[in-house]
Design brief:
Layout: E1 3-7, H1 11-22, E2 27-31, H2 34-43, E3 48-52, H3 60-70, E4 76-80, H4 87-93, E5 98-101, H5 106-115, E6 121-125, H6 129-141, E7 145-149, E8 165-169, H7 179-187, E9 193-197, E10 209-212, H8 217-233
Parallel strand pairs: 1-2, 1-3, 3-4, 4-5, 6-7, 6-8, 8-9, 9-10
Helix pairs in contact: 2-3, 3-4
Length: about 240
């Protein structure tokens, strides 16, 4: 049975949401704030955490950051009534499965929780923002969280996260072909990098796979699935 933690200073709202999810066969726990939630994560293993953004004490963004120090692989969904909240940018840098508007869209939340993967963070480096959005959504539908960058230099800010794989365009602003992949490999030694590119000749020699643009998205996602399965099966 999958286990989820719901965090909101309005416990009535959290309890209502948890009851709906529990009716679909999951075990759900509640926390009325960030400190209580963090204590629960420290002593229990959850399949995902669903947290409000604005709370007294630890905000949702601060909670996700603190959780990353305790359980880096825990998928996190943030709920917010303030789409323009500046803290959301900080939360996204930690690697979120999704940001959902309050009141939570139940069908969407249930679908995300059903597929949420522990240790499922993928770094996506792509300067075509429409393609970047499409890739992150396609990964999300298979339960993978993402952190993103759009230039070679942007890859440096991914350092505090722990992706298990990366999708990286070969030709990006800020460096020669393949520079983003090389930076990722320096930041995360041994990280499998999948190159997505209109210039396959420039793909780094160490790339796990190369997908020339336009590529088959399903095949690309299958490659990510295989890498994740290898991580799970490794001792």
């Amino acid at each position: 049975m999958r286990r989820y933690l719901f965090v909101d200073d309005n416990l009535d709202l959290a309890e209502n949401l948890a009851e709906i999810v529990a009716d679909h066969g999951a075990a759900c726990e509640l926390a009325g704030g960030g400190a209580e939630a963090l204590a629960r994560v420290e002593r229990s293993r959850f399949d995902a955490v669903v947290t409000d953004m604005r709370m007294p004490g630890l905000s949702g963004a601060e909670l996700v950051h603190a959780i990353r120090q305790v359980d880096p692989g825990l998928p996190a969904v943030v709920l917010t009534a303030h789409a323009g909240d500046a803290d959301l940018a900080a939360a996204r840098r930690e690697g979120l499965l999704a940001v959902l508007a309050k009141p939570a869209p139940i069908g969407r939340l249930l679908a995300l929780l059903d597929v949420a993967r522990r240790d499922g963070l993928v770094a996506v480096v792509e300067d075509d923002l429409a393609l970047l959005d499409n890739l992150t959504e396609a990964l999300r539908l298979r339960g993978f969280a993402t952190v993103t960058a759009s230039t070679v230099l942007d890859t440096d800010r991914l350092g505090p996260t722990r992706p298990f794989a990366a999708l990286a365009d070969v030709r990006l602003p800020g460096g020669p072909d393949g520079a983003a992949a090389r930076r990722l490999e320096a930041l995360f030694p041994g990280l499998p990098v999948v190159a997505v590119t209109a210039f396959p000749a420039g793909a780094p020699a160490g790339a796990r796979a190369v997908f020339p643009k336009p590529f088959d998205t399903a095949a690309l996602l299958d490659a990510v699935e295989r890498i994740h399965a290898e991580r799970k099966d490794s001792p």
